[in-house]
Amino acid sequence: MTYKGNPLEMLEKIKTAKIFDASESGRQGMVEMGLLFEYLEALDCLKNISFDLSLARGLDYYTGMIYEAVLQGANIGSIGGGGRYDGLVGMFSSK
């Protein structure tokens, strides 16, 4: 099953399929994604967003949601990306 497309539709599809029901952090992630989508909708930006559950970054320090920015119609790949990485500074310093 593919999980990519309209954010609200994908979130509902994931909830209906109960993909993350067995995981507390997964359930919390779905709540946070719902809140993010509410904010984006309030800012009239949600129409510009595609939710893709298959997106993954190869760096172990990400601790939450990741994102990628692309230009529609341009064949140049992503123009930006990032995510949440709690504790990253602590991995390299004791301060």
In short:
The chain has 95 residues and is α+β, with helices and mostly antiparallel strands.
Tell me about this structure.
This protein is of the alpha+beta class and 95 residues long. The protein has two domains: 54 residues, no CATH class; 39 residues, no CATH class. It has three helices and four strands, in the order βααβββα. Strands 1-2 form a two-stranded antiparallel sheet. Strands 3-4 form a two-stranded antiparallel ribbon. The radius of gyration is 15 Å and the shape is globular. The termini are far apart.
> What Rg is obtained from the alpha carbons, in whole angstroms?
15 Å
What class, by secondary structure content?
alpha+beta
Main β-sheet, in a few words? Answer: 2 strands, antiparallel
Overall geometric form: globular
- Assign a percent range to the helix content: 25-40%
Low-confidence stretches: none
Number of domains: 2
Descriptors:
globular; alpha+beta; 95 residues; 2 domains; 3 helices; two-stranded antiparallel ribbon; two-stranded antiparallel sheet
